[in-house]
What we know:
Blueprint: E1 4-8, H1 14-23, H2 32-39, E2 44-49, E3 52-61, E4 66-74, H3 83-94, E5 100-105, H4 110-114, E6 119-130, E7 148-151, H5 157-165, H6 173-181, E8 186-191, E9 197-207, E10 212-221, H7 224-235, E11 241-247, H8 251-259, E12 263-274, E13 284-286
Parallel strand pairs: 4-5, 10-11
Antiparallel strand pairs: 1-2, 2-3, 3-4, 5-12, 6-11, 6-12, 7-8, 8-9, 9-10, 10-13
Amino acid sequence: MPELIIRPARASDIPxxxxxxxxEEFAPGFGDVDIYRNTDKQGVWVGWLDSTPVGCIAGxxxxxxxxxxxxxxxxxxxxGHGYGxxxxxxxxxxxxxxxxxxxxxxxxxxxxxxxxxxxxxxKTIRWQLFNPDEDVPAQHELYPQNLTxxxxxxIPLEAIKKYDSERELIARPHFLSQWLEHQTGKVIALIxxxxxxxxxxxxxxxxxxxxxxWRIGPILxxxxxxxxxxxxxxxxxxxxxxxxxxxxxxxxAQSLLSSLGFRxxxxxxxxxxxxxxxxxxxxxxGLACLELG
Length: 293
């Protein structure tokens, strides 16, 4: 067997990575892997045996304080040879100077990650909705008159970045710019008369194991009522399967999604290695993606 060679992912590698993620039921969003790669040019790798790609991993360094590991895949026919271990070590090497590293662990991998020093923090629930009801209540009945739903060129990007930075573990302006300005999907925000943000969300098409669907994330809002406004505005225009990844510790999010007809289909565990500030999740109703936190 030839030696595994690990190198940074190239644009030409992305279609294969997306296929692998789809086969693992990650439900990759259109353009997601491009954004991961653009967030940290040296943070997505592919493992090769001669001219054959056999696996991948992302170890994204947001800054020297925080990084995240995801998109960790070895093709089934190449498992059991230690290739996954080598990809894992590559990601850790890239993030060795980062104060805190996060990841989302499948239930069967929690013990493995714990052996590397990762500690469980909270669960993340994947919610699914089939064929949303088209009879959506008039939106002006659901939120205060001093707020406006805006989209497209009316989105105040800097206000959204500020809002996001106050509710996430670290500020992530580069990632957020890529995420919100990507050509696929739609972003909406709730803005007051001073152009301050009170919530925002994005929906994008995704690849299911069979067919296509939609993923909504992130969803950040001042209250459950405003989160509902954002979600209803988005899923009213997009029929089919809709997925949302929501932090379980936000009980308001769980109640809201259940009331809207979503059902739990799977769960992962957020784990951290290293010290980090307390994570405030009361305004976080949906994560951007499991692969980058």
